[in-house]
Amino acid sequence: MITQLMNDIEAGKVTTNSEMNQRLHDIHQNYYDYEWAWAYQLMLHFYKLKESDLDKNEVLVDIIKRWKQAVVGLDKMLYQDAQKEFSLSTKTGFGFDGNTSTAEADFAEVRGQFESNPFVTAVQDHIAKKSALGEKWIERLG
Fold first, then answer.
1. What is the total count of domains within the chain?
2. What is the b/e burial string over 110-138, where b = at least 16 CB atoms within 10 angstroms of the residue's CB?
3. What is the value of pTM for the model shown?
4. What is the CB neighbour count within 10 angstroms for residue 77?
5. Residue 35 belongs to what domain range?
6. Which residue of 11, 73, 85, 111 has the fewest C-beta atoms within 10 A of its own C-beta?
7. pLDDT tens for each residue of the chain, 142 residues long
8. If you write DSSP's letter for every residue of 68-100 in order, what string do you get?
9. C-alpha to C-alpha distance for 47 and 128, rounded to whole angstroms
10. 95: left (phi > 0), else alpha (psi -120 to 50), else beta?
């Protein structure tokens, strides 16, 4: 759509700001349709499928399982990275004026606890929601 708009501008088909604003508004209004069309074609190409293949539930279940594995896998990597931020080696700048327990307390005061960290809880929530969504669709297609 953007390419078409640029071509129309170059060809003199769009000549005023109001025409361009209207075209951009139309693109914005239809964004999710364009997004789905792009993702759908990409999915067919990536999995080397024809549209008729999507009538088979086992094909859809396989795609959903792969999607779930990718999403949850990425979230688990984020979770593991977050764990590193709470490891002993990142606590070296804390508690210079005391012992190990002072460093722990200092660190907890500044960074909080791992289990209640907003980022960590958001990642865990995302894992749970996407896992449930994938399972719901797999069950429906069963």
1. 2
2. eeeebeeeeebeebeebbeebeeebeebb
3. 0.66
4. 11
5. 1-46
6. 11
7. 899 999 999 999 999 999 999 999 999 999 999 999 999 999 999 999 999 998 889 999 999 999 999 999 999 999 999 988 877 666 666 666 767 777 777 777 777 788 888 999 999 999 999 999 999 999 999 7
8. HHHHHHHHHHHHHHHHHHTSGGGGTTS-TTS-H
9. 26
10. left
Contacts of 137 (CB under 8 A, 6+ apart): 60, 64
Residue 44, classified by CB atoms within 10 Å of its CB into exposed (0-12), middle (13-18) or buried (19+), is: middle
Tokens of 22: 């209207």
Cα distance between residue 15 and residue 22, in whole Å: 12
